[in-house]
Each structure stands twice: as C-alpha cells, then as structure tokens.
Amino acid sequence: MAKQTIEDLSAEFKAIRQEVLAAVTRVLDSGRFTLAREVEALEEAICQQCGVRFAIGVSSGSTALELALAAADVGPGDEVVTVANTDSAVANAICRAGAGIAWADIDIATFNVDHRDLGARIGPRTKAIVVTHMHGRPADMNPLIALAARHNLVTIEDAALAWGAEYDHRRVGTMATIGCFSFAPTKVLGGIGDSGALVTNDPSIASRIRVLRKYGHCDAPEAISSNLDWTFVDAGVNGRMDEIQAAVLSIRLSHVDEYIGQRRRNAAMYTQLLRGLPIVLPEEDPRAFAVYRAYTICTDRRDMLRQHLSEVGVETRTYYSPSLHMQPAYVHRSRLADSLPATDRADREAVSLPVHPSLREADIRFIAGSVERFFSAAAAQD
Fold first, then answer.
1. Which of 236, 251, 266 finishes a domain?
2. How confident is the model at residue 35 (pLDDT cuts 50, 70, 90)?
3. What angle do CA 207, 208, 211 make, to 5 degrees?
4. Mean pLDDT of all residues in 238-255
5. What is the pTM (predicted TM-score) of this model?
6. Do 228 and 220 touch, CB atoms closer than 8 A?
7. What is the pLDDT of residue 332?
8. pLDDT digits over 248-269, tens only?
9. CA 90 vs CA 95, 203, 224, 303, 321: distances in Å
C-alpha cells in the first residue's frame, strides 16, 4: 500500500490539467491579470451557487476576514468573540483591526462553537462574533444568529474550510452579515495559489469591500468631483484577486460537487468502519450537509495512534494545535482563555485522517483497518 497523505493535490489537478492550462493561456493572452473578466465571471458564479446578491473576490481568505471586520467597522475599543481551535487568520484579522478577542468554547462532538458558551462570553465591548465552520462541518447557526440579533452584534461566518456545506438548507457563508471563504489549494474549493471571497446581501457592505480591496480607490469615480483616476475614499489594502486564480477556480467550481461527494463517501465509510472503537466520531447532523475538509476524530490515545499510523505509511494531522488561546501572539490581546475545557480536550485528543477526493475504497479500508488494529492491540495490553 502506497503512503497515504493528508492531501493529494497533484492527483486532483491531473484530471483537469488541460482545462487549467487552457485557462491560464487565455489569461496570459488577455494581458489583464487582476480584477478583470475572469474575476467577474467567478463572482457571478459564486452568487449563483450561494444564492446571494454580492460576491467579492480577494487575494486570500485572510484578506477576506480583515475586510469583513473593516466593513463592519470593528476597531479599537471593540471586542470580537470567536473560537481558539482554528487558524491564526481569524485572530490576526481581529488584532489588525485593533479589537480585543474573547474566546468561546466548542462542542467536542463537532469542534464548532458552543452557542451556549458563546452567549456567556458577550460583554459590554462586544461588537461582532466570528463563527468558523470547522473541518467542513456547519456550526449550529440558528441560535447564534438569534443571539447576535438580541445583542445587536455583527455576525461574520468564516467558511474557509466549508465551501458547499449547508445548514438548514442554506449555504454556509450566507446566513450572517458577511461570509468569508478561502480558496487556498488545500481547501474544498482550492486554486493553485492564495485567493478568497466575501459574500453578502447588503449592498452598502459589498460596495465598501470592493473599495477596500483596491487600496481604498473608489469603484465609482464618476461620483467623485476631484481627479477621477486618483481618488481614495477609504484606507484600503492590496486585496485584489488575480485573473489566473479566478480562471482556475471557475474550472474547479464546475467539478466541486464531485469532489464533495467523494469526501462525503469517504467520511461515511470511515464512520461505518470505525464505529464501536473508543473514539469520538464526526457524526452527521440531520440539519447539516458537511463537506469534510477533514475527517477529525478524538481519542485519549491520540499521539500513540499517530505514531502507529505513521509507521504503516498513513499521514495524519493535528490541525490548529495548540489552540490560539495558548499562543504567545494572543495571550495579552484576549480574555476568557482559562475556561475552555472542550477546546483543551481537542488540543490533546483531536487527529485528522486523510479524506481527500483521490482516495480509493481500498485506501479507506486500509487506514480504518490500521486504526482498528491499533485499538485491538491497545486493548490486549490493558
């Protein structure tokens, strides 16, 4: 059995190689490399797929989060509630906005924020909540949206790991004030470099984000009475999406349902084969449609299991560990970091198995069998 890696991007792109090469050639021949026809076409396709009014392509998922907070006027003196078991992009965006962070705990069964705990973390300075859909599994959005409405908070969905996932028949990213996506290569919908997008139904937010992503340059110069080619109306960033990424993503978007279907089939097979072992499995929520960017389990023998799987050629990953509340960069910029028992448990016990679309049934059976053999041997020694 060949080594089983956590991702296999070369295999994913092999099937669409000629389409990608033709798209890249088309962009090169056009002579326009940022925010042109390819980006506009991708934005239109995202709107159609997500059922939203506006989509704005940007340079990365991190940029999307920063622009979302800026468009929501989050700044110094404000506080944002979010989870610690995620990528640093969320915390970095909050810090760059000048706001503080309040950490909320998670539900260990889903790795998503526990809405009951989040409610207890809201304070007088809270301006927004950032909800991350972890490992491609939708968070429990209805109580979170209701909670935000009661406290007049902005809600931002970090859907970087969950393109195509649904909750209560709605696409993730579309239920909050603003939704953020990453299209980095390892994401469910990934390109051949960094890029991202924001979605919203609010025209004023969409307009501001379009300005912010181009250094703050006005997108509607006819409305400005001064020098029309050199008018800046906001303090923006260089957050433009490039045409090559947009062209490749449009191709990937036409195949993404196939990729998601294979991820879900792989996850379902794992769950069937691993049931009954002393591990916490990612069970399906009947209200949700998960896309399994990662298949993440919990076991108190995590490190020994990882060692065993490595010895038989199976790569695993402990994503986002140690969690952000333990990271030096954020210790002095956050509060409520001393009471996150489920987050701390995930730090000790969570491990992700390969679940990418290129895996075959034989690969899944080999990996699951290796996990089962580990626990059988451990039980014999107990």
1. 251
2. very high
3. 95
4. 97
5. 0.95
6. no
7. 86
8. 999 999 999 999 999 999 999 9
9. 9, 24, 34, 27, 15
Domain that holds residue 35: 9-251
Rounded Cα gap, residues 21 and 247, in angstroms? 10
Single residue among 251, 279, 307 that ends a domain in this structure? 251
In this structure, the number of other CB atoms found within 10 A of the CB of residue 93 comes to 27
Phi, psi of 285 (to 5 degrees): -90, 125
Distance between terminal CA atoms of the chain? 30
Are 17 and 158 within one domain? yes
Whether 181 and 312 map to the same domain: the answer is no
Q: pLDDT (tens digit, 9 = 90+) per residue, 76-96? A: 999 999 999 999 999 999 999
* Chain Cα centroid distance, residue 317: 16
* C-alpha atoms less than 13 angstroms from C-alpha of 282 in its C-beta half-sphere: 31
Strands (E), 124-277: 126-132, 154-158, 166-167, 170-171, 178-182, 196-200
In this structure, the answer to whether residues 287 and 170 fall within a common structural domain is: no
The 8-class DSSP code of residue 279 comes to S
Nearest to 271 by CA among 288, 258, 285: 285
* Same domain flag for 37 and 168: yes
40 and 165 share a domain? yes
Confirm if 167 and 139 have CB atoms less than 8 A apart.
yes
User: How far is 160 from 181, CA to CA, in rounded Å?
Assistant: 4
